[in-house]
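Contributing new complexes? Match this layout with adenosine-5'-diphosphate.
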Amino acid sequence: MSILNVENVSHDFGGRTILENASFRLLNGEHIGLVGANGEGKSTFLNIITGKLAPDSGKIEWCKRITTGYLDQHTVLKPGQTIYEVLQDAFKYYYDLEQEMLSMYEQMADCDDKTMNKLMEEVGEIQEILDHGGFYTIDVKIKEVAGGLGLNDIGLDKPVDALSGGQRSKVLLTKLLLENPMILILDEPTAGLDPQGTSEMMSLFKKINDLGKTIILVTHDMNHVLQYCDEVVVMNHGRVEKHDSVTNIFKDSKYLNSLGIDLPIITDFILKLNNHGFNIDSSINNIDQLILAIGGEING
Ligand SMILES: Nc1ncnc2c1ncn2[C@@H]1O[C@H](COP(=O)(O)OP(=O)(O)O)[C@@H](O)[C@H]1O
Ligand SMILES: [Mg+2]
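Output block (do not edit by hand):
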């Protein structure tokens, strides 16, 4: 099912065309790697589909009631807050409702019968939303998801100001996961992380995509695209120039090189082997499979 349709979107910055008739379709459950050279308009495109920026022309149609969550390296944490408070913000909607309910209780102390009945009814409705939405188990949920990303070890009462860049990224990602939007839009989310943090985060994205979450990920690292994504969207000269499976995209190394995009190390290695008489499946995306395939060629 298509959940986003973008048709002929164009956008200029100061008279310079950044996007020109970009069109794109997002299907439910896809894990897209959005790639392209620096300055080709990837971030601008994401800002437009998330509504942060209005296009000069074109159409963006999201399926009804879709929720999106966005993360990039510029997302900031409010200084002074603890990790726990930042994570609680993921449930702001419910905390606001609770406040509304409490102020209704205060009004009840001094009101006429008619108002009382109306307030009782509204309080009941809010109470049901809170019960249903897991409001009273927020603490458990926060600790569970935070634990999964290693934040409990840092201590949830630690002020975010004292965190390293990698730890901040984890806090922001944890908050995003707690908000549980239907679509994750990630603009170079691992920028600034060390290799271990990066691969942990990438594996997590893959895991939640496997559970059905739709993901659009901008990355410069084609090894990540090969290992974690299903589909690739290539932006070039302000257009969505290609949208194809990872396997098909990485078959065309000449095209990618012309855009300044390197092949994933594994794919590049397979090409070289095949140029030397091997006949290895170029869609292989991990070392174990590659070793097996080489073994098969050598022995067979
Ligand atoms: N707010 C802005 N004002 C003017 N130019 C901008 C603005 N944002 C981006 N640009 C320019 O638009 C082009 C595309 O930027 P961007 O979408 O960030 O590319 P990418 O994410 O692919 O690197 C770049 O040349 C950039 O300098
Ligand atoms: Mg960018």
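Reviewers usually confirm one structural detail per submission. For this one: Residues 83-137 form one domain.
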